[in-house]
Amino acid sequence: MSKDYSKHYSASKLNAKLLEIAGKLTQKTLRQILTLVALLKSDDVPVYAKAAIVAVLGYLIFPFDLFPDILPGGLSEDFVAIALLFAEMAIYYNDEMDRSVDEMMEDIFGDGG
Fold first, then answer.
1. Greatest Cα-to-Cα distance within the chain, rounded to the nearest angstrom
2. Distant-in-sequence, close-in-space partners of 11: CB < 8 Å, separation ≥ 6
3. Is the dihedral of CA 110, 31, 47, 13 positive or negative?
4. Which of the chain's termini has less CB crowding within 10 Å, N or C?
């Protein structure tokens, strides 16, 4: 019988995780994460790419990692996965997504980051 992990995956969980780790994120990493979210919402991104985005963002949110987040450097494998996927998804990026990322930063952090 498989365990239901769906309670760990939602936009509010991602926002909470970003607020929790904000001090450990560079501006570049934060924008990469939010760009992946914008790509996930886009109709121009194929399903297989969206599946990869869900997997990587899910790994960021999921409380059980290869290296627990509470350890020094515990988020490093999350950030590597984000950076690699971001580079792979760059072909789908456009200026509209940049504006969307700015709006998400405003919604999450209240002052644009």
1. 45
2. 37
3. negative
4. N
